[in-house]
Write a structure and sequence with these properties.
This protein is an alpha/beta fold. Helices cover about 40% and strands about 20% of the residues. It is built from 11 helices and 9 strands. It has helices spanning about 10-20, 35-50, 65-70, 75-85, 95-100, 120, 125-140, 155-165, 195-200, 205-215, 220-235, and strands at about 5, 25-30, 50-55, 90-95, 145-150, 170-175, 240-245, 260-270, 270-280. Strand 5, helix 8 and strand 6 form a beta-alpha-beta unit. It is globular and about 55 Å long. It starts with a strand and ends in a 5-residue tail after the last strand. The structure holds pantoate (PAF). Pantoate binds near residues 30, 60, 133, 134 and 155.
Length: about 280
């Protein structure tokens, strides 16, 4: 069995209209391809919620900070399509760049506040690119619900805010980060780690989980974060771009886990930039 592939908005809307005529619920799983178990977990969650699941693959040039990073991004559509067929997705929407950004395209969706720090600080313009393409995918598909991984926790908050602010009638569903057995968060970028780096990379999640446990038992964030940063540097990460305790709801900085919180980090390992985040249980004595 293969998954049908469409490349234009017109074909996508035609397929969705036929499902709507049968009163079927439609879910969307936006991706940039190079699929792994993390993406498949989103597809499975979508299948459990809606009768029809569309997966999109579009390597969005507007969210890359450097042309080299865009060029190096893996493109594996054939393998991806086979994985999606195996997972039971109903449609693959893989538009060409001109379909998403036609000649003269001039609109940017920019989400203030939740976009500005952490990833937004180190990747200027990244979230404008994400918000713009995701808004387009929502409007093109008219999906009832859309599935995003908590691995990109800040992206999730940006997408939620954007959909709410623009009154796009789509339910945003967050799915837990899928990790390798050694704890490393799954990411298409992991393929770019050397075998030695790959062996060292799980230290990122270990350090985050250790720090989160300390904060959940009441420790102040500042000394725990300083110690965690040193542990990452000792393990060969650098630069550690950010390592922060933030409110899960608003992403506002916290000095301790006085409300549901998230510990988020971005750090380089060799030539690869890794991000990860973990939940910190609320400690409000
Ligand atoms: O998380 C991603 O893969 C991308 O940022 C997304 C949401 C598909 C938008 O291009």
């Amino acid at each position: 069995m293969s998954v049908p592939v469409v490349r234009t908005v017109a074909e996508l809307r035609y397929a969705v209209a036929a499902w709507r005529a049968e009163r079927l619920q439609v879910a969307l799983v936006p991706t940039m391809g190079a699929l792994h178990e993390g993406h498949l977990s989103l597809v499975r969650a979508a299948l459990s919620r809606a009768e029809r699941v569309i997966v999109t693959i579009f390597v969005n040039p507007k969210q890359f900070n450097s042309p080299a990073d865009l060029a190096a991004y893996p493109r594996t559509e054939e393998t991806d399509a086979a994985m999606l067929a195996g997972a039971g997705a109903h449609l693959l929407y893989a538009p060409l760049a001109g379909e998403i950004y036609p000649e003269g395209f001039s609109t940017t969706v920019s989400v203030a506040s939740v976009s500005e720090e952490m990833e937004g600080r180190f990747r200027p313009g990244h979230f404008d690119g994400v918000a713009t393409v995701v808004a387009k995918l929502f409007l093109q598909s008219g999906a009832d619900c859309a599935f995003f991984g908590e691995k990109d926790f800040q992206q999730l908050q940006v997408v939620r805010r954007m959909a709410r602010d623009l009154d796009i009638p789509v339910e945003i569903v967050a799915c837990p980060t899928i990790r390798e057995r050694n704890g490393l968060a799954m990411s298409s970028r992991n393929a770019r780690l050397s075998p030695q780096e790959h062996a060292r990379a799980p230290r990122l999640s270990e350090v985050l989980f250790e720090a989160a446990a300390k904060m959940a038992s009441g420790a102040d964030a500042q000394p725990v974060l300083a110690q965690a940063r040193r542990a990452l540097e000792d393990a060969g990460f650098g630069p550690v771009e950010y390592l922060e305790l933030r409110s899960s709801a608003s992403l506002a900085p916290l000095t301790r886990a006085s409300e549901p919180a998230r510990l988020l980090a971005a750090a380089w390992l060799g030539q690869v930039r890794l991000i990860d985040n973990v939940e910190v249980a609320e400690n409000d004595p």
